[in-house]
Amino acid sequence: MMSEKITLGKALNHGLRRSLESDSKVVIMGEDVGKLGGVFRITDGLQKDFGEDRVIDTPLAEAGIVGTAVGLAIRGYRPVCEIQFDGFVFPAYNQIVAQVAKMYFRSLGNVRLPIVIRIPYGGGIGAVEHHSESPEAYFAHTPGLKVVTCSNPADAYVMIQQAIASDDPIVFFEPKRRYWEKGEVDLDAGLAEAYPLHASRVVRQGTDATVIAYGPMVRVALDAAAAAEEDGRNLEVIDLRTLSPLDLGPVYDSVRRTGRAVIVHEAPGNLGMGSEIAARITEECFYSLEAPVLRVTGYDTPYPAARVEEEYLPDLDRVLDAVDRSFGW
Fold it and tell me: In the sheet where 116-121 sits, what is the strand order?
């Protein structure tokens, strides 16, 4: 086993490289992905090694990037589109929800679009406007799209390869504030024996309350669980990993044991992923709940200026406060 301690960003780079090596139909396209290696250097070195026909610097035109990917996918390619920042995806939104999501159904299952749309998302990096959005609910709400998000280097390495190998269009959210966090990655891991792409996972076992998170907030949830232990509370933490389809079996099992659930995400609370998850937990686990399902989210305002973003983002204290409120019932 070849295991290395690398950053999440480097794990994605290795995963993309392995996909390019294993399938000549995989192409990467986006703004500055080639010569520059991407604004976060996720595609660093790939154009040099695989050429300009497979790692393609595109014009600054997100609708054109995704529209071109639709044509390539129809012709048998597996395009991987990079949207440089979360807030830049909206010019491509029409292509994604009107074309990418619907082609399989429109063609009665005869046309597959194996497109991966990579989107760095979330705040916490001191960026300017349009660079710290969390637009996952727009895409998880859209039938025909699959939506996943990694939270650690090991998952990032495998999940990007699984997404590229899938015959379905997948929106792949990458937690940009975690790009530089390191973890052990098995670079020899094969996809056949890997943890399934569309499956959530218990990342910390506990008995007193269930904390559900995904992407950048998994680290916050784990930190909160470690802090709660000092107060004698044992929190279970679940990393959703997949937002569409949702895999809530492990969540239901956990909540039936703990009786309490707290959902954490950066996106605004109104009609966010937490709303759907809370509704489903209430339907499935009603008689097990000792308290209402609570949510810890960003506020229902546009993302603020960088100097006050830490006031906006859910943090350890807000998660612990929600846990306290849950126990107050």
Answer: 55-57, 26-30, 78-82, 116-121, 170-175, 146-149, 242-244
**Concatenated DSSP letters of 49-89:** HH-TTTEEEPPS-HHHHHHHHHHHHHTT-EEEEEPSSGGG-
* Alpha carbon 27 to chain centroid, angstroms: 21
CA 253 to each of CA 30, 224, 257, 260: distance values in angstroms, whole numbers, following the listed order? 41, 21, 7, 12
- Is the entire prediction scored with pTM above 0.70? yes
Name the catalytic one among 14, 130, 131, 141.
Answer: 131
The pairing of strands 201-204 and 235-239 is antiparallel
Both tokens of residue 201?
């996972």
- Are 157 and 15 a contacting pair, CB within 8 Å? yes
For residue 238, pLDDT over 80 is answered with yes
Going by their DSSP bridges, the two strands 170-175 and 146-149 should be labelled as parallel
Taking the C-alpha atoms of residue 279 and residue 248, their distance in angstroms, rounded to an integer, is 12
**Identity of the amino acid at 85:** F
DSSP assignments along 93-146, one per residue: HHHIIIIITTHHHHTTT------EEEEEE---S---TTSS---HHHHHTSTT-E
What does the alpha-carbon distance between residue 41 and residue 35 come to, in Å, rounded to a whole number?
Answer: 10
Amino acid at the residue 153:
P
CB 209 within 8 A of CB 183: no
Active site residue 265: no
- Report the distance separating Cα 174 and Cα 241, nearest Å: 11
1-26 tens-digit pLDDT: 578 999 999 999 999 999 999 999 99
The 10 Å CB-count burial string (b at 16+, else e) for 222-236 is bebbebbeeeebebb
